Amino acid sequence: MSTDKAQSWVYSEGFLTEDDTLLRARERAGQLGCTPVLPGSGAVLRLLAAAAQARAVVEIGTGAGVGSLYLLRGMPEEGVLTTIDVEIEHQRAAKEAFSEEGLRSTRTRTISGRALDVLPRLTDGGYDLVFVDADKESYPAYVEQALRLLRPGGVLAIDNALWHDRVADPARRDEVTTVIREVGRMVRDDARLLPAMIPSGDGLLTAVKR
User: Fold this and answer.
1) How far lies 117's CA from each of 4, 84, 120, in Å?
2) CB 21 within 8 A of CB 69
3) What's the rounded Cα separation, in Å, for the pair 51 and 206?
4) What is the DSSP string of 40-109?
5) Tell me: the pLDDT tens digits for 29-72?
6) How many Cα neighbours within 13 Å face the side chain of 110?
């Protein structure tokens, strides 16, 4: 990457300033050892949720609630976020962030458990946006579940789609990089989807379900 391009990335990541609620959620994420969305990706998530007028959203991988806050800030007031995480401590931290945000309890539905156990119980075609940000090895299965859950015109967003700049390097063939690269191809080549790769944060692969 050229120096100018690197500076442009830094500039875009800091284009919107995060407030104290987001910064505290990031701090809790660091304490728990979970990696939240970067600010650039968060801003795109908020925009996608607002553009889609997303009233029903599924988040796979709650973490400490940083991505959740961005999604909720883009959703209408009556919108409900269903967020899934296998770690109870993560969801406790996220609930703390939701409380600081002043959200009504009816705005969020936190479900503890393995996403691949929870997702099949959710309603087919019942969601406006699905955000994938959990264990990378399961990304292919999460995408298939997301396609079932999304309504026509619904939005799919997948974080870490560039995976620390490894995905674009064909010499990188470790398991996680290979899985994420294959997911990119899967989304790109699926006739049911209209995709775009956004190089914000660690890469945000997005698509609209036709």
Assistant:
1) 45, 10, 6
2) yes
3) 13
4) HHHHHHHHHHHHTT-SEEEEE--TTSHHHHHHHHHS-TT-EEEEEES-HHHHHHHHHHHHHHT--GGGEE
5) 999 999 999 999 999 999 999 999 999 999 999 999 999 999 99
6) 21
